Amino acid sequence: MNRRSYRLEELAHLVQGEYFGEKDFQISNLASLELAQNQHICFVNGEKYLAQAEASDAGVYIVTETLKQQLTQKKNFIVVDNPYLAFAVLTHIFEAKILQRGIESTAKIHPSAIIADDAYIGHYVVIGENCVIGANTIIQSHSFIDDGVEVGKDCFVDAHVTITGQAKLKDRIRIHANTAIGTEGFGFAPYQGKWHRIAQLGSVQIGNDVRIGSNCSIDRGALDDTILEDGVIIDNLVQIAHNVHIGENTAIAAKCGIAGSARIGKNCILGGASGVVGHLEITDNVTLTAMSMVTKNISEAGTYSSGMGLFENSHWKKTIVRLRQLADVPLTQITKRLDYMQAQLESLESTLKLRK
Amino acid sequence: MNRRSYRLEELAHLVQGEYFGEKDFQISNLASLELAQNQHICFVNGEKYLAQAEASDAGVYIVTETLKQQLTQKKNFIVVDNPYLAFAVLTHIFEAKILQRGIESTAKIHPSAIIADDAYIGHYVVIGENCVIGANTIIQSHSFIDDGVEVGKDCFVDAHVTITGQAKLKDRIRIHANTAIGTEGFGFAPYQGKWHRIAQLGSVQIGNDVRIGSNCSIDRGALDDTILEDGVIIDNLVQIAHNVHIGENTAIAAKCGIAGSARIGKNCILGGASGVVGHLEITDNVTLTAMSMVTKNISEAGTYSSGMGLFENSHWKKTIVRLRQLADVPLTQITKRLDYMQAQLESLESTLKLRK
Amino acid sequence: MNRRSYRLEELAHLVQGEYFGEKDFQISNLASLELAQNQHICFVNGEKYLAQAEASDAGVYIVTETLKQQLTQKKNFIVVDNPYLAFAVLTHIFEAKILQRGIESTAKIHPSAIIADDAYIGHYVVIGENCVIGANTIIQSHSFIDDGVEVGKDCFVDAHVTITGQAKLKDRIRIHANTAIGTEGFGFAPYQGKWHRIAQLGSVQIGNDVRIGSNCSIDRGALDDTILEDGVIIDNLVQIAHNVHIGENTAIAAKCGIAGSARIGKNCILGGASGVVGHLEITDNVTLTAMSMVTKNISEAGTYSSGMGLFENSHWKKTIVRLRQLADVPLTQITKRLDYMQAQLESLESTLKLRK
């Protein structure tokens, strides 16, 4: 944690908001409404948090004008249009920064590698032939940057990351612990009952401002490259297979898997544990809810879903029995037959009435 | 493997059981019924394993009184109430222990870190500022313990583990290889078509006796902490997002993913590859079968399930066609309409009969 | 990338094909049809790629006799029966090889370990007591080979791999970055509301030519061993639990999970993110499509599937409502009742007609 504290006026200025209350009020940290103490600042993310805000011990609240008027018992505020965004900005103020610069004596760097003077290379990092590490980039302990890999400026590569396959990373990229980038794609030619390995000759290109979580696997391409465009954000334990292409600003939640050569558009959101089959295309602005299974192209923007949700176990068992019968039940005919028989019945009834 | 061998009497004493047969019989290891040799001890976990036990070459059998009476051809036994538990106890006797203590010369330890004298710090381990490592704790090769992390006593941290985000770990915790704890949560504020990173200021708290498998990701909280209570056990490749709270003694099988701020109760069991959506609550004593998908709160204890199970492929394809029609078929009306028409038919029939 | 270039005649010889055109044409690399330049060689994998081949700038094409006759505008060819296989062979020619041999000075090797003279042991590798590393095997930076582990010849172990649990690996095995092999299985005996750890005493056996991707977890057995037979290929982020047995040449795509003691036959293909429940058997030659969920034995070869595929979100919501009603709808009776009522109706109608 950054030990400095800030005055209300200072923080309001940083988020381009207006302050109300004691301009010199000292704020030592951000906190949740629930656990905040008097020296903390909180954000109120809509009307549904008003009751929690009223009960909070926080000293200062980031709110909209409307929310402020409803918090009549509170004294200190920062008023902004978008409290969540202001909160996002302030997290950077209170974040503990890695201030070390230079190369730890235990790092092994190939003489041909070019490391910016103000980069930080942690303990036991290994950097190979012809690598480039840009200005202000931090490579944490034990990371392995294989021959020919280039990392831009202002990047953060956490501990135990492997970057290989001559991957090229641009600027302001963050890669979290134990992730593997540029590893060999899963390519095998079946022949006479055996799998013949296809050595992977493509690489990985990662655009500006990309974020990759921990324990992810991003494979190098078979011939062309695997590509993550600018602004892509990826959570933990995600698989990106060889030759996948992810468009700008697409967000991929934890545990997703994208199979080989799939092409995902811009501004998509993939819910957790979703799977995308290989060699297909998803257009821009597609949202998948969690655990979706994509087996065909998606050519229209929109929200898509899979999965039957959760059932109480005995209800589920009965449902599965029915589901197994479903293939033999001509669903669309049933209603038609019912309508037809209803008509027959009514005709019979009127015939009978006429004969009375 | 521990090379010592044990006498039947010794082992019976260790599991608080009664021995039958040669009290000095030498036992060199535990084994499965199938592969056991004469110097091995096996356990018989219920009547369904009696045939396998009869055919086994093991020298000694851990059994209940009832099972013993049915194994008339065998000579040496340890009789207990719960053979599986006795087996669990004995595995610890035959396990190869890590006996090294002290700090390997290749480990890099910040001068401010406090390491217990009888801890073991393996090769190339990096331990940061103000860390604490408790008595009898083992940190295997290459692990990275970042600034401010505390690990209690009698813990085991396997190779290539990353612990960061100022995580606090209590006692008797086991963390397996290549797991990342305390890494940054996946928090971004969308604004003007881009994702704005929310620096994560919370931490991770891990209770006593917690077990975390290999290749897991346990993220630090955004403001408050991610919390695993005492006795939680977690298998491999599991994702625990920021601000998740897992109650005591809950077991999470491999490949599960728990999204941000979800709260899971005590004594739950999550089957493999289950997913829990963010910001919801699961009460105590809930069991999810494998590959469950939880999108709503679960407020009643019980067993829950998802997923349609496996179909032969052509049956599956037909089922999916029907499933896509299902939305347009008024299922609950069909039976009602059938009943109604049946009544009409019967009324017509009786009218006709009356007119004979 | 290997900097050498090859003559057309040379490459044709290497794939046992026939060349047409300029036998001395210099080829510097393999490429995709789309991005190839004149000095590149491409393969044409069937008629559907003919248009792309015609538009390609590649200098040489690997084709079948039939395809060659249709590419009338092109000059240089290698003709083979199986272009995809020829391509697979040539990737090995153009692959950048790791040429270093010997032991880096920063590696920590126990004096009792036996390392072949022509093996390569990378920076900061740790190799324990009684380990064996075979001829021409490469162990990349930071890998941890724990006591008693044996690795055969011609293997490749990438960075940050953990091999423990006395695992025994045969020859020509490739293990990608950040994978953990031989880690402790998830075995706990429940007793009085707590989980009692079962120390895992089995090991892992990995056959010849096995390939394991990045970020995989392959646990050691509880008593007997976890076994991967010869020729098994495994993609990234796959979980193989304790005592699993995988038969020869079975392929497992990314994100699959195989639970404890499951037994999978030979020549199976498991689509991505499939799950197999513990203690069951899958026979030889079974294919699972992506995201399959196997909860019962599969005793017949064939293709099997799970999952409802993707729905537009509002269609999905309606479908789920119906699915929740399904348990109470006697599907198989509906058609029978319809048929029965139809017969009644017709009988009534004919009765009425007779009475006219």
Can you describe what's shown?
Chains A, B, C: The active site is at residue 242. Chains A, B, C: Homotrimer. Chains A, B, C: Residues 106-183 form the Mannose-1-phosphate guanyltransferase C-terminal domain. Chains A, B, C: It is an enzyme of class 2 (transferase). The structure is a homotrimer of 356-residue chains. The first copy, chain A, has 356 residues and is of the alpha/beta class. Chain A folds into three domains: 6-94, Udp-n-acetylmuramoylalanyl-d-glutamate--2,6- Diaminopimelate Ligase, Chain: A, domain 1 (3-Layer(aba) Sandwich); 102-304, UDP N-Acetylglucosamine Acyltransferase, domain 1, CATH 2.160.10; 314-355. The model of chain A has no long low-confidence stretch (mean pLDDT 96). Chains in contact: A-B, A-C, B-C. The interface between A and B is large, with 79 and 83 residues. Strand 40 (311-312) of chain A pairs antiparallel with strand 39 (302-305) of chain B, so a sheet runs across the interface.
Radius of gyration of chain A: 29 Å
Total number of strands of chain A: 40
CATH topology of the largest domain in chain A: UDP N-Acetylglucosamine Acyltransferase, domain 1
How much β-strand is present in the residues of chain A?
25-35%
Sheet with most strands: strand arrangement of chain A: 8-11-14-17-20-25-28-31-34-37-39
List low-pLDDT spans of chain A: none
User: Total helix count of chain A?
Assistant: 6
First-residue to last-residue Cα separation of chain A: 93 Å
Task: Name the CATH architecture of the largest domain in chain A.
Answer: 3 Solenoid
CATH class identity of the largest domain in chain A: Mainly Beta
Q: Looking at this structure, what is the CATH superfamily of the largest domain in chain A?
A: Hexapeptide repeat proteins
The biggest beta sheet of chain A is recorded as: 11 strands, parallel
The dominant shape of chain A is flat
Which structural class best describes the helix and strand composition of chain A? alpha/beta
Assembly form of the protein: homotrimer
Number of domains of chain A: 3
Helix percentage of chain A: 10-25%
Biggest interface, chains and residues, is: A-B, 79 and 83 residues
What's the pLDDT, averaged over the residues of chain A? 96
